[in-house]
């Protein structure tokens, strides 16, 4: 049973990777980032539930998972603020070398 569960998790992860590649190559458009993001969330759930066996882990492991997700959100949010709020000011060029 354990081997079958791992094999299904592995094939599920491979199917998600194939879906991401197919969406990136065949469907460029406004929906592609949302589909790829959904695949990433599904891959995160597969890794956490199948390979790491988090539901049967101790409560301390659950606390670490919550802390990691919180800090990941903070760091990605702060990293995204720079390009979202950057303003380019044109500088007049008076001399060319």
List the helices and strands and how they pair.
Layout: H1 2-26, H2 32-51, H3 59-85
Helix pairs in contact: 1-2
Main features:
flat; mainly alpha; single chain
Quick recap:
The chain is mostly helical. It contains three helices and no strands.
Describe the structure.
With 97 residues, the chain is mainly α. The chain contains 3 helices and no strands. The longest helix is centred in the last third of the chain and has 27 residues, at 59-85. The model has no long low-confidence stretch (mean pLDDT 86).
Estimated structural class: mainly alpha
- Binned, the helix content reads over 70%
Share in β-strands? under 5%
Order of helices and strands: HHH
- Please report the distance between the alpha carbons of the first and last residues: 72 Å
Low-pLDDT sequence parts? none
Overall domain count: 2
Q: What's the mean pLDDT score? A: 86
Rounded radius of gyration (Å): 21 Å
Number of helices: 3
Largest sheet: none
> What's the shape?
flat
How many runs of DSSP E, i.e. beta strands?
0
């Amino acid at each position: 049973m354990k081997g079958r569960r791992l094999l299904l998790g592995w094939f599920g992860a491979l199917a998600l990777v194939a879906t991401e590649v197919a969406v990136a190559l065949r469907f460029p458009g406004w929906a592609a980032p949302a589909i790829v993001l959904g695949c990433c969330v599904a891959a995160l759930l597969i890794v956490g539930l199948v390979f790491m066996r988090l539901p049967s882990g101790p409560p301390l492991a659950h606390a670490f998972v919550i802390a990691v997700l919180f800090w990941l959100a903070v760091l990605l949010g702060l990293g995204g603020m720079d390009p979202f709020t950057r303003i380019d000011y044109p500088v007049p060029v008076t001399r060319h070398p």
